[in-house]
Amino acid sequence: MSAAAHVPRDYHVADPEQALKYAVQHVAWDRTELVEGVITPVSVSWARGSAVEAVRRQIAPRLEELGLVSGSGNLDLPGSENWFIPDLAVVPAELAAKTEGALLPDQTLLVVEVTSPSNGETDRTVKRRRYGQYGAPVYLLVDRQLRECTVFSGPGRLGYEEVDGPHPFGRGVRLPAPFDLEIDTGRF
């Protein structure tokens, strides 16, 4: 007998967005995103993790000065079928300490995504547009396949309005205020 036989005919989900986001947080995989309505398991290779760590180490002293922390917690994009787990996000330390659930992109100061062969196009297009629409002030895209970095800022209704790059790996990339520091991309 199929599982569908046990669902009552009058079964109705009052809020499909909330139901989908609840489901993505309770699947068997360790880390799962919801990208434009598609449930997507997140896997991190050593090379991708190494690039994330290179960014984290370079911004760490500045985070300490500014009272910020970095991590890769959940980001909800209300009103859409998106629930992202960025490779790295920077948020105020006191906000992170009191938040058990997801944050919103506009509560971050920086979001970093590092591409892999399986997610590169999503990071380049969907996440770039959505992070901008949802107010993430700065989005750093580390594109390992194209071997370049781009800084997006000035979030707006259609995505980001300001683009710095792409810069080839090996050339420094400047993060805007409040960071005001240059990232060494030769480490990616």
Q: What do we call the CATH topology? A: tt1808, chain A
Radius of gyration: 18 Å
Can you give the mean pLDDT?
89
Unreliable residue runs = none
Overall number of domains: 1
State the helix count: 4
Helix content: 25-40%
N-to-C CA distance: 52 Å
Look at the structure and name the CATH superfamily. tt1808, chain A
The CATH C-level name is Alpha Beta
**Could you say which structural class the secondary elements and strand pairing correspond to?**
alpha+beta
The total count of strands amounts to: 12
Strand order of the largest sheet: 3-6-7-8-9-10
Which CATH architecture?
A: Alpha-Beta Complex
Largest sheet: 6 strands, mixed
Summary, kept brief:
The protein is of the alpha+beta class and 188 residues long. Helix content is 27%, strand content 31%. It has 4 helices and 12 strands.
Descriptive keywords:
188 residues, alpha+beta, tt1808, chain A, six-stranded mixed β-sheet, 27% helix, globular
3D structure, described in words:
The protein is α+β, with helices and mostly antiparallel strands and 188 residues long. It has a single domain (44-187), classed as tt1808, chain A (Alpha-Beta Complex). The chain contains 4 helices and 12 strands; from the N terminus they run αββαββββαβαβββββ. A 6-stranded mixed beta sheet has the order 3-6-7-8-9-10. A two-stranded antiparallel sheet has the order 1-2. β11 and β12 form a beta hairpin. The longest helix has 21 residues, at 46-66.
Please describe the topology of this protein:
Elements (H helix, E strand, L loop, with lengths): L15 H9 L7 E4 L2 E4 L4 H21 L1 E4 L3 E3 L4 E3 L3 E5 H6 L11 E5 L5 H14 L4 E6 L4 E9 L2 E10 L4 E3 L5 E3 L5
